[in-house]
Specification:
heterodimer, A: 326 residues, eight-stranded mixed beta sheet, five-stranded parallel beta sheet, 13 helices, 20% strand, B: alpha+beta, 5 strands, 30% strand
């Protein structure tokens, strides 16, 4: 039996990549969580491993299912990737050249250990508009390993003055698709998932379930309340941002029982205007989206003080900030 | 009389036309009294807008009595993104 039980480590696989066919046996949700960056894999939709010449590596999420499969089916020339896709993801991130981030790893608050946390960070951004674009760009360049962009909107001409990932030629294209293309040019090593749909009650829990932080870049109160609900339920911090003309708000909500959006503003609240109604100058979402990205990195690394349990209000006319304790 | 400062944010700032207002109010006045004063003053410009109130940079629940030197902030939700 032991003759059939073969294991290969991520390091060995990397060194002998040309000798193997990689077969990914995982369902879609697991593949999205840990994409096999740098591997050309065959996706197996059933338990039938195709017969083929040469050696194969079977990949599951944690390396347990494939070990069992090889034993049970007595597969010859099949190896199980030790630790599975999760281990491959970790291995790849450890191989990255950290000199790319030398100007931030030199910060005593970040260092190499902090950078590794950033590289393994998973962030969902709901709304790829004025807040989502700068937040995504800054998080990607800071090295955040996994970004999940969620928005069902298309690029329109009136977006371009404040959403710098999009160009004239992108008008009428799906925002998340364009954003993924532009961001991948900045750092192809980052895993970027683009979900071209609006968040709603039916999809919210599934879409937001496997991340460390959720960034609220939406433009309406109802979606903020929905994010808040999932954030509370899953105990995943929500980094809220909002805009009104020259003013912006940022708050980190739902960190181990800290106040959420429903405490920040009561559930039956009304009022507020969208950028379309109230107007906004392009620089303001750039500032607020970047503050959201900054607070997200601080959360991932564990840097304090931060905006947990506080509301920051930035006034771009007078350049005044107010921090309110919730 | 006591002296307090009102800090206006987003729609309140535009409705009142000011960032800050320093005013004398009766001893015993509350945050609710101040909110009513503002709502009346702007003649409908803040209708249907929920306001949260902070006193000295801290959210307050319900209505509280104000003291001399208090800073009272009126904060609406902002929708834009």
């Amino acid at each position: 039996m032991e003759d059939y039980f073969l294991i290969i480590t991520p390091k060995e696989l990397k060194e002998q990549l040309d000798d193997f066919t990689v077969i990914d046996i995982r369902p879609e949700d697991q593949r999205l969580e840990f994409p096999l960056v740098g591997l050309d894999s065959i996706i197996l939709n059933n338990d039938l491993v195709p017969e083929m010449d040469g050696k194969q590596v079977l990949v599951c999420q944690f390396g347990i299912v494939t070990e069992g499969m090889i034993l049970e089916k007595e597969l010859e020339n099949a190896f199980s990737l030790l630790g599975g896709a999760q281990a491959w993801d970790k291995f790849c991130r450890e191989q990255e050249d950290l000199s790319r981030w030398s100007r931030q790893t030199v910060l005593p608050e970040i260092g190499i250990e902090g950078q590794k946390k950033i590289l393994n960070g998973k962030v969902a951004i709901v709304g790829m508009g004025g807040l989502g674009c700068p937040a995504a760009q800054s998080l990607l360049t800071a090295g955040v390993g996994h970004l999940h962009l969620i928005d069902g909107d298309e690029v329109s001409l009136s977006n371009l003055h404040r959403q710098p990932l999009y160009r004239n030629n992108d008008v009428h294209r799906a925002k998340v698709v364009v954003a993924k293309e532009k961001l991948a040019e900045l750092n192809p090593e980052t895993s970027i998932r683009a979900t071209d749909t609006f968040l709603n009650e039916d999809n919210a829990e599934k879409l937001l379930s496997i991340v460390d932080v959720i960034i609220d870049g939406t433009d309406n109160i109802e979606t903020r309340q929905l994010i808040d609900h999932i954030s509370k339920k899953k105990n995943i911090p929500m980094v809220h941002g909002g805009l009104f003309r020259f003013e912006g708000q940022v708050s980190i909500l739902n960190v181990n029982g800290s106040p959420g959006y429903s405490e920040l503003f009561p559930s039956k609240l009304t009022g507020g205007n969208t950028c379309e109604d109230a107007g906004v100058l392009g620089m303001l979402p750039g500032i607020i989206g970047n503050i959201q990205a900054l607070e997200t990195v601080k959360l991932i690394v564990g840097i304090e003080p931060n905006l947990v349990g506080k509301l920051l209000i930035y006034d771009g006319k007078n350049h005044k900030t107010e921090i309110i304790q919730l | 009389m006591i002296k307090i400062k009102i800090k206006c944010f987003s729609q309140v700032r535009y409705a009142m036309g000011k960032d800050e207002i320093i005013m004398d109010i009766e001893v015993g006045s509350t945050t609710s009294d101040l909110e009513s004063f503002i709502i009346e003053k702007v003649e409908g410009k803040l209708d249907n807008i929920s306001l949260r109130v902070a006193v000295n940079q801290k959210y307050v629940q319900g209505s509280i009595e104000l003291k001399d030197g208090d800073e009272v902030a009126f904060i609406p939700p902002v929708q834009g993104g």
